[in-house]
Amino acid sequence: MPKLETSSKDLVQVQTLFAAMEPAAAHPYLMGRNIPAAVLSGPRLVGKVYTDSHRNAIFPHYNSAGLCGYEIKNQNFTGFAKGGEKGLWFSTVSHTDTVAVIAETAIDAISYHVLYPDPHTRLFSTGGSLNPDQPELIARAAARLPQGGLIIIATDHDPGGDSLTDAIRQALESAQRPDLQITRHSPAQAGQDWNDVLKHSEAPQGQPTMKMGGMDRQGP
Fold first, then answer.
1. 3-state SS of the chain?
2. Percentage of the chain with pLDDT > 90?
3. Rounded (10°) CA dihedral 75, 157, 62, 73
4. What is the pTM of this model?
5. d(Cα 125, Cα 71) in Å, to the nearest integer?
6. In which region does residue 170 sit, left (phi positive, over 0), alpha (psi from -120 to 50) or beta (all else)?
7. Region 11-215: CATH code
8. Could you tell me if 24 and 49 are in contact, meaning their C-beta atoms sit under 8 angstroms apart?
């Protein structure tokens, strides 16, 4: 997975451009990645995926001050908002949630959601490797889980995924929540991310039939 491109900060420009974007109840590129419109328009993702004037898929990131950037994805392109900075992309949340999935990209987090549907799971993306501000955001997200909650680090099966997993684990330690279960779940095949798994799934597109498997290992 290529690292997301970043640039010097201009949050006013980021917020102005984002204000002109539209929520994506369906997106051709994402549907081509085996992410169905029914998932994009479902309650977990409503208002969390957008499209811009170039028909890119947009995944907004937030920090403690609000909108701070967005992941940009389209055919043969992975980028980040010019002038923005990474916070966390996240799905909608519910008071009944007991699980948090943290992935490297929003597409990977959503792909995991399609493969392992669970009405009590909220989703997060770091947008690549962590910047100095993201560990605190991850710790805050962990602190909001209920007693005995589960955090799944759904990283790629590659050295970058190993490094990101270590960084996320370190961030979670600062949440001081020893009651939480923390585990990694990566694809079985080396080099794959969770969208690779989804694209090669034998289940018909839009039919999330896979069940939760073992954790702290590679593989579904």
1. CCCCCCCCCCHHHHHHHHHCCEECCCCHHHHHCCCCHHHHCCCCCCCCCEECCCCCEEEEEEECCEEEEEEEEECCEEEECCCCCCCEEECCCCCCCCEEEEECCHHHHHHHHHHCCCCCEEEEECCCCCCCCHHHHHHHHHHCCCCCCEEEEECCCCHHHHHHHHHHHHHHHCCCCCCCEEEEEECCCCCCCHHHHHHCCCCCCCCCCCCCCCCCEECC
2. 85
3. 0
4. 0.89
5. 9
6. alpha
7. 3.40.1360.10
8. yes
d(CA 204, CA 31): 12
Q: Looking at the predicted structure, is the pLDDT value of residue 204 above 50?
A: no
Reported residue count of the chain is 220
Q: What is the pLDDT of residues 57-112, one digit of tens each?
A: 999 999 999 999 999 999 989 999 999 999 999 999 999 999 999 999 999 999 99
Residue reference for tokens 């585990």:
183
Domain edges within the chain: 11-215
